[in-house]
Amino acid sequence: MNKKIKSNNSFQFLLIIFAGLLAILLIAVYFNKSSNNSYNQSQITNNSNGTKMYKSKTLKFTIDLPSKFQVEEKFTTVFMKNINGLISIERIGTNYTDLEGYLRDLESKNRILIANKEELKVNDLHGIRGTITHPISHNIDEKAYFIYVDKWMVFTISTSSPALFGDLDKIAQSFRYTPN
User: Fold this and answer.
1) Of 30, 151, 32, 24, which is closest to residue 95 (Cα–Cα)?
2) CB-based contacts of 33: which residues, under 8 Å, 6+ apart?
3) In whole angstroms, what is the distance from residue 141 CA to residue 132 CA?
4) pTM given for the model
5) What share of the chain is helix, strand, coil (3-state, %, to 5)?
6) Element (DSSP H or E) covering residue 70
């Protein structure tokens, strides 16, 4: 009789452990799916000119986006994809108090060159447009905008697809930092 009770208790203990692990797995799957959904962190509204206004609540910016793009937001990067390729917007922390110092460090540490640098204003923010070349790795060149939004923060908007350079220019020029 005592052996049967001990066996029954072991079975109940294993059943409770299994149920707990199953609950943890289901919660992890639920949160993983919700974190991959850009609509949980962002908003897309249609504009009258055939573009969409994309607002990233997590990364705190808005852009005007051509309607042909699909958007995916992950951690500190937003990916905008269509049949011609990919444009990305990445938020990067920096220890530099100016964009030029940040870019010098970026070139040195990543062994890249930023050619054809052109200073510009993007909605009153200091920016630099240029071409990222990869002399050592020989990766495809990228057209990029670097926008210094605040102390310690830079946004990079870039693509390696020449077919998207026009869209990149429009998206970068519409960039607005929205910290509040």
Assistant:
1) 151
2) none
3) 6
4) 0.76
5) 35, 40, 25
6) strand 70-74
